[in-house]
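My main concern about presentation is that the manuscript never shows what a single data entry looks like. Each protein is reduced to its one-letter sequence and a matching series of backbone shape codes. For the editor and my fellow referees, an illustration may be useful. For illustration, here is how one protein appears when written out as sequence plus structure tokens:
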Amino acid sequence: MAQKRDYYEVLGVDRKADEDTIKKAYRKQALENHPDKNPGNAEAEKRFKDAAEAYSVLSDAQKRQRYDQFGHAGVDGPQGGGGGFQSAEDVFAAFGDLFGGGGGGFFDQIFGGGGRRGRGRRGASLKVDLELTLEEVAQGVKKTIDLKRPEPCAHCSGSGAKPGTKKRTCTTCNGHGQVIRSQGFFQLRQTCPTCSGQGEAIDDPCPKCKGRGAVPKESPITLTIPAGIESGHTERIAGQGEPGDGGGPPGDLVVVLHVKEHDVFTRYGDDLLMQSRITFRQAVMGDEIEIPTITGETVAMAIPAGTQPGEKLRVRNHGLPRPDGYGRGNLVVQVQVDVPKKTTAEQQELLAKFDEIDGKKSKKNGKRTIFEKVKDIFS
């Protein structure tokens, strides 16, 4: 497999180039290698697709940061967004807005417009916020989204025209989808106000969709959420947005994942932090206690003798699964020592005896107590 070229090299820009410079460089590359200008030229089409791939990464701040840090490995694959384009059609579908909807835009000004209007306009993308519990993140989950979106009208097969009738060529733009406006010495191309750039008009609209070519419909979508996902993670599902106009490709569905706060566990990357209370005796002498885990089970944890209040003990491999699938994080338990507010006479006697024994031990080892040191100061 051939090694990919550096994206900055593909566009011919410096690694510190700003967004406007990158866009201008891409426009230049796309214009020079556009399929309409280079029919049958496989090399030109490859350069056209390579430039689009480079632009798709460098024009996105997050993707560009990953690329600058990790190279192609940081953006390749389904989550990276730098997987490339299989054909020129994919480029027009991805950058419909930049190309003026159906591959037009700045190309139409050079090639006369209308050459690609049959492609239609790409549908709008939809955004959905999805909330997850920490337990669902720990094990992975399937979620069904009850999505209401426009679907192609079955009555008119999405054409928008009444069955038995056809669209006609727009008389305002003569089917080009654009009109020329003169302003002094200049001529400007603008989207046709009559057909909205489609190049076609409907005289007899479909009674079901009122000429829109689509009707609202409940469309449940089931997503498989992998374990260990981070809050704020975005999943883009291609082709699950609104349908395109005039037979154009559908938009995408963008799902933003949000993880709810947990009552017991606090997340720190792949690790989980919780607090557990122990008695004074357990802190001094040591013990073994059962603590809960995010999977609903309990696990034994050793309390070493002499554990201090606030000390953090680690239970390995009981945190969250790592997104790369290799192992799990740790469960970190912060120990809080319970100090009784009331004590019995017997307890007080035993504590006094403890201090007495501890004091004798200190003297035997040649150590002076704090009270002895203070007494020396004021004597």
Remarks:
- The first strand starts at residue 126 and ends at 132.
- Confidence is low (pLDDT under 50) at residues 78-82, 99-119.
